[in-house]
C-alpha cells in the first residue's frame, strides 16, 4: 500500500474512535468506508493535503415527533398518551434503510435517552447519538452508542468517516430542547409528526412548524386508538435556499396531497421509502 493510502486508512481508523475507543465500528464497515473513499479519489492526496482539508459539512437530518395542536409533547417527562401504532410507525420509520449494509441514526438528548426503558436501549438496529454536556455522564458507549456535546458536533461527526459511509438517514427524536434547536433549522429536510387531535395537558412544548419553510407532503386519514384521535403527517422543506426560519407560524393539519409544483426541490429521495410509498398511494386515489 502506498504511503498516502496508509495515511488515509489511519484517518478512517481514527474516525472510528472520535468519541473514545469504545465507539468501535465493525471491520467490514471500516473497509467499506475506506474503499468508497478511495473510489472518490482521495487516495491521490498527500499527507499534507489530508491535514489541510476543510472541516466536514454538517449532516442534514429529519425530525420525528408526536405533538398536540398546541405543540405539546410531554408531561412530567413522559408521553401523556399511549399509542402503540405510533410506536410501531416510529420504529419502522427509523429502522428501515434502503441499503442493508447501513444503519439509520437517532439523535436524542440525555433525558430522552434516560426515558427509554433499560431493556430497550440503545434502540436496536440504529446508531444512537446521545447529546449531553455532562463530563460525568454514566452513559456507556459502544458499537451502537455515541456521545456528543451538541447538535452541531453530532452533525459534523456524522458527516465524517466512517459514519458518512456506514449510516443512511439521521432522525432527531427529542426531547424538547433538542426539538427547539432543530425543528425549523436549515439542516432539517423533513418533519414527520404524529398530530394529536385529542386535548392533553402538557408542560413541554416545541415551536410550531413554519409553513413559510415547510409544506405538507403527506397526511394520513384520522385514526383513533385508546380514545385518542391522531394522524400521521410529513412536512418537507419548501425551498432549498432557506437560511433562517421564524418559528412562530402555526402548522395546520391538512388533508390530501400538496401540489408538487410549489416545491423548489424536485428530488424527494431523501425521504424514507415508506413515506414516499404512502404519498404515492394518496395521490393515486
From TrEMBL:
Transmembrane segments: none annotated. GO terms for cellular component: mitochondrion. GO terms for molecular function: dihydrofolate reductase activity; NADP binding. Pathway: Cofactor biosynthesis; tetrahydrofolate biosynthesis; 5,6,7,8-tetrahydrofolate from 7,8-dihydrofolate: step 1/1. Belongs to the dihydrofolate reductase family. PANTHER family: DIHYDROFOLATE REDUCTASE. This is dihydrofolate reductase. It comes from Hibiscus trionum.
Amino acid at each position: 500500500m502506498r504511503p498516502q493510502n496508509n495515511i488515509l486508512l489511519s484517518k478512517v481508523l481514527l474516525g472510528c474512535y472520535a468519541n473514545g475507543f469504545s465507539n468501535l465500528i465493525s471491520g467490514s464497515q471500516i473497509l467499506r468506508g475506506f474503499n468508497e473513499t478511495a473510489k472518490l479519489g482521495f487516495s491521490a492526496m498527500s499527507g499534507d493535503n489530508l491535514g489541510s482539508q476543510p472541516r466536514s459539512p454538517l449532516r442534514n437530518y429529519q425530525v420525528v415527533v408526536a405533538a398536540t395542536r398546541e405543540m405539546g409533547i410531554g408531561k412530567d417527562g413522559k408521553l401523556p398518551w399511549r399509542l402503540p401504532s405510533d410506536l410501531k410507525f416510529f420504529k419502522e420509520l427509523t429502522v428501515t434503510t434502503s441499503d442493508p449494509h447501513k444503519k439509520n441514526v437517532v439523535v436524542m438528548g440525555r433525558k430522552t435517552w434516560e426515558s427509554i426503558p433499560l431493556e430497550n436501549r440503545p434502540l436496536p438496529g440504529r446508531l444512537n447519538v446521545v447529546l449531553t454536556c455532562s463530563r460525568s455522564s454514566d452513559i456507556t458507549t459502544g458499537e451502537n452508542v455515541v456521545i456528543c456535546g451538541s447538535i452541531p458536533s453530532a452533525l459534523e461527526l456524522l458527516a465524517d468517516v466512517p459514519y458518512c459511509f456506514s449510516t443512511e438517514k439521521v432522525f432527531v427524536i427529542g426531547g424538547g430542547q433538542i426539538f427547539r434547536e432543530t425543528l425549523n433549522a436549515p439542516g432539517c429536510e423533513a418533519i414527520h409528526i404524529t398530530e394529536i387531535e385529542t386535548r392533553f395537558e402538557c408542560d413541554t412544548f416545541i415551536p410550531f412548524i413554519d409553513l413559510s419553510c415547510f409544506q405538507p407532503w403527506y397526511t394520513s386519514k384520522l385514526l383513533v386508538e385508546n380514545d385518542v384521535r391522531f394522524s400521521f403527517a410529513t412536512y418537507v422543506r419548501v425551498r432549498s435556499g432557506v437560511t433562517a426560519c421564524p418559528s412562530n407560524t402555526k402548522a395546520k393539519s391538512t388533508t390530501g396531497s400538496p401540489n408538487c409544483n410549489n416545491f423548489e426541490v424536485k428530488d424527494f429521495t431523501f425521504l424514507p421509502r415508506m413515506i414516499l410509498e404512502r404519498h404515492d398511494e394518496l395521490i393515486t386515489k
